[in-house]
């Protein structure tokens, strides 16, 4: 069932993005007076097609679902028939270089516009996500040494106000990529607003694609360790623990949240521990002997304890939502370009190059999490698709834009022989990138 969900989510995510991208090319081509011969979703052999409109444009579905294209009337096409006088005026290469630039750039721009629309809708709707209160951290972590303490609520990073965990994570990753110190402002119950600084050296040697916050000791706060349902036949019931008990300590070690309680019981399978609980304002010490799980070896007592972090919902009015969406799209695009640059320079591992298998896996995971999470994933992939198509690689939109930019500067088109050589080099580069992406995908699965 999960496999079917993953495949359907992948097609539902990638299909509309490809269609929207190609519709950008198609719409601007028509506005610029270029005749469109075919609009294809997918590459390779056409498996279904219908012709519509005055120009009898062929709308097709092709065999390979990874991509699509808009075929315009082009005199360079060896299969093109002799052009009528009317068609000569509507041939792609006869248009001004600025119109050709607009047609080629329209695809990636359409992806950015789609991301802005999706993010704006989500920001108006409101996104429920963990807040920025932090969990207690170890004294050896970089966060502790910088001055952070459990219970602090981070309200700004490098002067930028934040209200949700994703915003905190984003700002920290951006600073780590730029190798900058991270200035944190927190609200502390006993002191009010105070500031701390995480030095850039705290992130040296860490993979930006990994959990940077966790690596320096920052994790989201969890609820107090209050016991929920006590399952029958377990160690909790046998020991006399009750629903509503607030766990204070285990063997004298303070327990601040549900995760800490689970971590304290894990190594205690088959061994009695002293659990101090607060029950209705009275303190009790209860001996508990966790059962040892035969598979994992961890201790368990068969009692529910709250683990989900406190959620906050950040919503905006229409104008503010659009502004936030534009900034989010710009920042995500800039981050993608930075990551590509870091990979080229060797500062970031090439393992971060992902392909269709990983995208499909994430599509399935986010679809199972809910509509909001899936829409965030679609918007993020749309941005990546736009950025990747703008890379100056021949056969991509960015390569064509490079050709036309040179034409603007020199006043004449790129010689056909050079363009043909560049096309071959671009195809070879794309094949190598795809091979690397698929290799990384398979390595992750294994």
Description:
The chain is of the alpha+beta class. Among the domains are: 130-219 and 312-348, PDZ domain (Pdz3 Domain, Roll), CATH 2.30.42; 227-307, Pdz3 Domain (Roll), CATH 2.30.42.10. The chain is built from 13 helices and 16 strands. The two termini are 21 Å apart. The model has no long low-confidence stretch (mean pLDDT 89). Residues 183-266 form the PDZ domain. InterPro entries: PDZ, PDZ_6, PDZ_sf, Pept_M50_Zn, Peptidase_M50. It is found in: Membrane. This is Zinc metalloprotease.
Give the SSE map.
Elements: H1 2-31, E1 36-52, E2 57-72, H2 85-89, H3 97-125, E3 127-130, H4 142-146, E4 153-157, E5 160-161, H5 165-177, E6 182-188, E7 192-198, H6 212-215, E8 227-230, H7 235-239, E9 246-250, E10 253-254, H8 258-265, E11 273-279, E12 282-288, E13 291-292, E14 299-300, E15 303-305, E16 311-314, H9 318-345, H10 356-369, H11 371-389, H12 397-410, H13 416-445
Antiparallel strand pairs: 1-2, 3-16, 4-5, 4-6, 6-7, 8-15, 9-10, 9-11, 11-12, 13-14
Helix pairs in contact: 1-3, 1-10, 1-11, 3-9, 3-11, 3-12, 9-11, 10-11
Pfam families: PDZ_6 (PF17820), Peptidase_M50 (PF02163)
Family: Belongs to the peptidase M50B family.
Keywords: Hydrolase, Membrane, Metal-binding, Metalloprotease, Protease, Transmembrane, Transmembrane helix, Zinc
């Amino acid at each position: 069932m999960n496999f079917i969900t993953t495949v359907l989510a992948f097609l539902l995510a990638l299909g509309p993005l490809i269609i929207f991208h190609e519709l950008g090319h198609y719409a601007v081509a028509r506005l610029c007076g270029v005749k469109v011969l075919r609009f294809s979703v997918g590459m390779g052999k056409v498996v279904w097609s219908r012709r519509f409109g005055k120009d009898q444009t062929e709308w097709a579905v092709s065999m390979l679902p990874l991509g699509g294209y808009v075929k315009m009337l082009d005199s360079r096409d060896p299969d093109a028939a002799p052009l009528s006088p009317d068609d000569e005026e509507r041939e792609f290469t006869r248009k001004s270089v600025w119109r050709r630039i607009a047609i080629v750039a329209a695809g990636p721009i359409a992806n950015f516009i789609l991301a802005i629309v999706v993010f704006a809708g989500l920001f108006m709707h409101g996104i429920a996500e963990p807040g920025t209160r932090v969990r207690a951290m170890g004294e050896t972590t970089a966060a502790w040494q910088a001055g952070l303490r459990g219970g602090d609520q981070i309200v700004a990073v490098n002067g930028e106000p934040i209200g949700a965990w994703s915003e905190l994570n984003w700002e920290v990753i951006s600073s780590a990529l730029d190798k900058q110190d991270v200035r944190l402002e927190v609200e502390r119950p006993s002191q009010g607003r105070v500031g701390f600084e995480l030095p850039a050296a705290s992130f040296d040697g860490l993979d930006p694609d990994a959990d940077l916050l966790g690596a320096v000791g920052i994790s989201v706060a969890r609820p107090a360790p209050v016991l929920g349902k006590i399952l029958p036949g377990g160690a909790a019931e046998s020991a006399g623990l009750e629903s509503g008990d607030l766990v204070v300590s285990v063997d004298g070690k303070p327990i601040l949240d549900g995760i800490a309680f689970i971590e304290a019981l894990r190594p205690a399978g088959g061994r009695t521990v002293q659990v101090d609980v607060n029950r209705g304002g009275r303190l009790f010490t209860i001996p508990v002997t966790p059962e040892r799980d035969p598979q994992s070896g961890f201790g368990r007592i068969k009692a529910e304890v709250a683990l989900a972090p406190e959620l906050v919902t950040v919503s905006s009015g229409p104008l503010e939502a659009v502004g936030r969406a534009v900034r989010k799209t710009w920042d995500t695009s800039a981050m993608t370009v930075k990551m590509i640059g870091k990979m080229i320079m060797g500062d970031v591992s090439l393992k971060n190059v992902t392909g269709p298998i990983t995208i499909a896996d994430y599509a399935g995971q986010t679809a199972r999490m809910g509509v909001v999470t899936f829409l965030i994933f679609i918007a993020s992939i749309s941005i990546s698709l736009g950025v990747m198509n703008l890379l100056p690689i021949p056969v991509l939109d960015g390569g064509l834009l490079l050709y036309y930019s040179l034409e603007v500067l020199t006043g004449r088109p790129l010689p056909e022989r050079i363009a043909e050589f560049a096309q071959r080099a671009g195809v070879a580069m794309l094949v190598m990138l795809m091979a690397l992406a698929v290799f990384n995908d398979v390595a992750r699965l294994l």
